[in-house]
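Milestone M4 deliverable, item 7.
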Amino acid sequence: MAAARSEERPWLFLWLAVCLAGVGTCRGAQLGTYIVQMSPSEKPDAFAQHLEWYVSTVRSVAAEARAEGDGGGDVEDAAGRIVYSYDTAFHGFAARLSEVEAAQLGDQAGVVAVYPENVYELHTTRSPGFLGLQSQAFVGIWSNAIASHDVIVGVLDTGIWPESPSFSDSGMGPVPERWKGACETAEDFKRSSCNRKIIGARIFYRGYEASTGALDAKEKSVRDQDGHGTHTAATAAGSAVPGANFMGYAEGTARGMAPGARLAVYKVCWAGGCFSSDILSAVDRAVADGVDVVSISLGGGVSSYHRDSLSVAAFGAMEKGVFVACSAGNSGPDPSSLTNVAPWIATVGASSMDRDFPASVKLGDGGNISGVSLYRGRRYLSGQKQYPLIYLGGNASSAADPKALCLDGALDPHLVAGKIVLCERGITARVQKGQVVKQAGGVGMILANTAANGEELVADSHLLPAVAVGEAEGAAIKRYAKADHRASATLTFSGTRLGIRPSPVVAAFSSRGPNFLTLEVLKPDLIAPGVNILAAWSDAISPSSLPVDRRRVGFNILSGTSMSCPHVAGVAALLKARHPDWSPAAIKSALMTTAYVRDNTRRPLRDAATGGESNHYAHGAGHIDPSKALDPGLVYDISRQDYIDFLCTQKLTPPQMRVFTKSAGQACRAPPGSAGDLNYPAISALLSSAPRQTIHRTVTNVGAPVSTYRVTVSPFSGATLVVEPSMLHFTQKGQKLQYKVTFVKKARQPAPEFGALTWEDGTHSVRTAVVITYLSPA
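Output delivered:
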């Protein structure tokens, strides 16, 4: 799990369809885990409980496979082969089945879909103040709202370190009576580990065990041995902790986005990954327990909405009124690299804040290069002395050069000892490269970005003096080191700096759109702080997560969309507290239409990957602005039927539609609309050879009862936008009014265009992001 803190680790969505002992399935008796979705209304009356029906179904296909001589599992132990039974956000079960049995399940009555087990991986303070959450007026508003409505945030991750002061329940009232959750205890996680802040703690490991083998009994605990879950939980809803810092860096009061909210922890990730059957069970249980918001900082590739069990589970959570936030992934800046793209999920990308941790490289030729670092150790390099500098990469591209990448065993101690080594990012974790240099006898490291990272700087807690620099600066240092055999440098560290401009900036690692499943649905939805985030940490692991690192800290600084996701989940909890009657779609709309697209220099948001302007495929609707989301004026609401109608445009077969409708009857309205007509708080239009296209939207007034909104539209080169009506007059709160946008094509453009239409009433500014994609003629 430590690799979640390095964007160099690939975030892959793995279908377990290969023959790997104990993990995948092969034709015959080899068993793998499958998730089976059932239609609860089709349960025969002969079975008193759904579980009895599930066991009978497994027994039936096992007997059939045995009779046909195709192998299979134990017929008599059908009940023992059931891994989970799902009853709330999802209906069905997970079971150990052979490939033949899984195939035969499709012919069984009541079976809607069969999913092979998938492995997901984790996508891995100043942010409350940066987001405007610490003003006295704002704190008062939110504290009163939280007190009047006990919001519960469910976090699916690696567990929690309950002793952290971030999870103090001081001043909190009794646990809400509606809460149905539990505190699952273990040898190292007592009943007292839960309190009025951590009101629920559960573990989910049966799917993991079924695929990888049994966990040690001591591992079966909610206690966080990785740190990732503690960090995300504290970011979402951690209590205020004055004087928090990471080894002297980022000192201040650490607090979550919704410090008055309750936390329910669902541990779904283990040393070997996060398995879909466990994640599905956790979502199902969280909804049944009574959470209001779910934060899921993990994911993987997706081939379709109906084949992604997390997407299906999130749909079930949405039906129960639960807001689901997921990380977008750390595979940027590649296009279409997003995960968790279903429209009923809030997909969150990552941005920087106005805080940095400057460090510098002073070269022997007089050059002075800026970088960042979180190094804090016993040994510092003298700023008055120069140390030999070496770069072991070749003259040509070193993308696969183990020496340039400072991979394990690649550095010759005779060449490295006593020197500062220039290493390139890639393949292995950033902190691991520093350890390789240290083991080879190096006294320091300069970590240079490659083209994939651009000028983005991510600070790390290295075990030796080390400074991270951008691609351009790294290239200059390489040229110097290769040209001068007496090249030298020294490294200095300057602590914490606030007020960085420009900020925020879209993180280079943050996954990008477009949404490859449906271009008409803009993804990511928005961005939030995800670079160099300070939050609570587990005492079971070092800040670098390296086995040789013996340091222990109460707070750690991490980067990733794993960190941005709980920011949005926590702010969603605040909105739910203030507006308990709002649907998940209304909450997401408020976040998106009030998001901003200009940085603290009043210029368009920048992209760290290119150094140029960002766009909606990188930042979605924009950067979250909690204070404005509190009072958005208008919202785009979406009902379950609206989502069903959207799915009807996705060319799903009737059996595939049943995954969401849970019934075999006609679910689509007639005539079917277009995917672009989903009432999303962003518009993504596809213009082909047709001269016109019209898209419809409905807005709900959640502001002043009587108000009049007028629209403005940003200019586009390839099309003219006509909004009808151009004025919306509301006479009561809750009133819904429709408008349509007609795109009149002028000239096909070679690339998508980005802009917005904005409704304003003098108090509110409701910005709806607009993307136009010009399709090639058929």
